[in-house]
Write a structure and sequence with these properties.
heterodimer, A: 320 residues, mainly alpha, MetI-like fold, 13 helices, globular, B: 341 residues, alpha/beta, 4-stranded antiparallel sheet
């Protein structure tokens, strides 16, 4: 088991290196550089060239990459060209918001998805299953940005039950009870929008896995042992059906960092997805580069986590 | 002297619903199994032999059961699922056909054996269960039981997994063991070992065994009595010697003549023409084997075939056995649909 995790970790290293190179070249392919937007247009071309030389922008790529990556390793992503603040601070602020939103969404997804999937799979083709399956088809067919807009309009605007933007009401003392409740109040609507649409994959996966597992020979073995139906489901069917869901968990965690671009945009929620779109629109390249790098990192770590979870729940994957 | 009756099945019919209508996969089957006796149920795929076994265990999915299944006088057909759960795995248990799929891939062997102990012996401690599971594994011939107990099914070979399944089946010393083609999925060399093991355990536990198979070699080696099933009905039943020495029903005779000969050169295997009719297309009246022996005169069959006692304790269904003959070479080719040259 540890062998497997160590091996899997070693594979991750070249992945990280390759990704950082890709991000670096992508950034250097973008028109202009960190210098272009900050330069005073009245300066003479010679003076500009001198500055470029001084900042190392004329060095060969591997030197520039080396400098960049060692700064990144120290947590220094440079300064935002739009906000004149360190990128790290900017991202940190947004990431915390996104992590709260995503955490709540993931909790909702599992809290709704697992019971629905189990009910649907256990009583497949009965009325209750048809209703749940009908919902999943609707969920698949509805784009998240349409759904989020409708939810926002109805519950936020028409009924006024929830705030329509931001992450916390202004003028509250951070850390106070009111502050936390206000945060939660702001989170609820976007999190539910993500969950109600995001849950359909989990439900359908679990449903089809349960229907599949129900017909396996070892289920007959369990019944032949005299195991009551509740035990057959809890010990044998559920455990075997939940494997792909467990494997998917790592990718859900990726979402914790990347956030939902659409939903954050619609609810004007100051998270990572929102920051990403904003920075692209105003060409804040240090931020864009840092965000892309983080998203890539999250995806690689998510895949790593998925593999590790799968090796814990499925003994056939472990390397002896 | 005959041993005591263990299981008595009276007029068992198991029907399954296909398109709103019920069709009997097991039709009016009556059987008796005695202690320390092996009853073999023989037949082709689709003859209803597995459906009979699953009906006894109460594992027939959504099938409708009629008739009586008396295990030591208690009618299993009348029991609720929770009452059946107290008997399954304890008084009777089952050995399955495919050891590769019959074990839960995510559970250690020890847990899977422990489960059947836990379900029927509430006051056994965890350590006691583990020690007993190791003992059981040793008893079914697993070389290093204390190691195997913590392994997962995928780490064991097919023969070893079948031994584990047998260990689960005998864990609570059942009175009745039902083995559904226990050796079909195994190598020939492993087959013999598994059969020897089953024979040995049966003698130790004094259990009755229902052995379901299509392998007549297995029948000859293991069985005391034989019931031949065709299309959901028993067509012939007797002790094992009479079946092999003095088979009566055309189906039994055809089955026996389709065993490849090993003591003389044989050009062609005997084949029984046609296939077992599907559940939906079973003839509801008349001899069900009629279609597959078309050279026998229609008048030879009964309209409503019943079992006839042809000699003591030897039963044959339908009168057609009295008129049955194998067609000569030419006719046989014709009958088998062989059109060479």
């Amino acid at each position: 088991m540890w062998k497997f995790i160590v091996r899997r970790l070693i594979i991750t290293l070249p992945q990280l290196l390759l990704m950082s190179l890709l991000v670096f070249f992508m950034a250097s392919l973008m028109p202009g550089d960190a210098f272009t937007s900050q330069v005073d247009p009245s300066l003479s071309p010679e003076a500009i060239e001198e500055q470029r030389e001084r900042l190392g922008l004329n060095d060969p790529w591997y030197q520039q990459y080396g400098r960049w990556i060692s700064n990144v390793a120290e947590g220094d992503f440079g300064t935002s060209t739009a906000h004149y603040r360190p990128v790290t601070d900017l991202i940190w602020e947004r990431m915390i918001n996104t992590i709260w939103l995503s955490l709540l969404s993931v909790i909702f997804i599992y809290a709704i998805g697992i019971p629905l999937g189990i009910i649907s799979g256990r009583w497949n083709d009965r009325l209750v299953d048809q209703i749940i399956t009908g919902y999943t088809y609707l969920g698949f067919a509805t784009p998240i940005f349409i759904f989020a807009l409708v939810v926002l309009f109805f519950f936020g605007f028409t009924l006024g039950w929830f705030p329509t933007g931001g992450s916390v009401a202004s003028g509250l003392e951070p850390g106070s009870f009111e502050y936390i409740m206000s945060k939660l109040h702001h989170l609820l609507l976007p999190a539910l929008s993500i969950a109600l649409i995001g849950v359909v994959g989990t439900v359908q996966y679990l449903r089809s896995e349960i229907i599949d597992t129900k017909q396996k020979d070892f289920i007959v073995t369990a019944r032949a042992k005299g195991a009551p139906e509740s035990r057959v489901y809890n010990r044998h069917i559920f455990r075997n059906s939940v494997l792909p869901i467990a494997a998917f968990f790592g990718y859900e965690i990726t979402m914790l960092i990347t956030g939902s671009v659409f939903v954050e945009q619609i609810f004007s929620y100051p998270g990572m997805g929102n920051l990403f779109i904003e920075s692209i629109l105003i060409r804040d390249f240090p931020v864009v580069t840092a965000v892309v790098l983080l998203f890539g990192l999250a995806a690689i770590l998510g895949a790593l986590l998925s593999d590790i979870i799968l090796s814990i729940v499925d003994p056939r994957i472990r390397i002896k | 002297m005959l041993n005591q009756e263990l299981l008595k099945i009276n007029n068992l019919s198991t029907s399954f619903q296909i398109d709103e209508e019920y069709y009997a996969a097991v039709d009016d089957v009556s059987l008796t199994v005695r202690e320390n006796e092996v009853l073999a149920i023989v037949g082709e795929s689709g003859s209803g032999k597995s459906a009979t076994a699953f009906s006894i265990m109460g594992l027939h999915n959504r099938g409708k059961i009629e008739g009586e299944i008396l295990l030591q006088g208690q009618d299993l057909a009348k029991l609720s699922t929770s009452e059946m759960n107290k008997i399954r795995g304890k008084d009777m248990s089952m050995i399955f056909q495919d050891p590769l799929t019959a074990l839960n891939p995510l559970m250690e062997i020890g847990v899977q054996i422990g489960e059947v102990l836990l379900l029927h012996n509430k006051n056994m401690s965890k350590t006691e269960r583990r020690n007993y599971a190791i003992e059981l594994l040793g008893r079914v011939g697993i070389p290093r039981p204390e190691r195997t107990i913590d392994q997962f099914p995928h780490e064991l070979s097919g023969g070893m997994r079948q031994r584990v399944i047998i260990a689960i089946a005998i864990a609570n010393q059942p009175k009745l063991l039902i083995a559904d083609e226990p050796t079909t999925a195994l190598d020939v060399t492993i087959q013999a070992q598994i059969l020897d093991l089953m024979q040995e355990l049966k003698d130790d536990l004094n259990s009755g065994v229902i052995l379901i198979t299509h392998d007549l070699g297995v029948v000859a080696e293991m069985a005391d009595r034989v019931a031949v099933m065709y299309a959901g009905q028993i067509v012939e039943e007797s002790d094992v010697e009479s079946i092999f020495v003095n088979p009566q029903h055309p189906y039994t005779r055809s089955l026996l003549s389709s065993i490849p000969a090993t003591d003389y050169a044989q050009d062609r295997l005997h084949v029984i023409q046609g296939i077992v009719p599907s559940l939906k297309h079973l003839p509801r009246t008349g001899c069900r084997f009629k279609e597959r022996i078309p050279w026998i005169d229609d008048d030879a069959h009964e309209d409503h075939p019943v079992l006839h006692e042809v000699s003591e304790d030897h039963f044959v269904r339908c009168t057609c056995y009295q008129h049955f003959y194998f067609p000569d070479e030419n006719k046989e080719d014709q009958a088998n649909g062989v059109t060479e040259g």
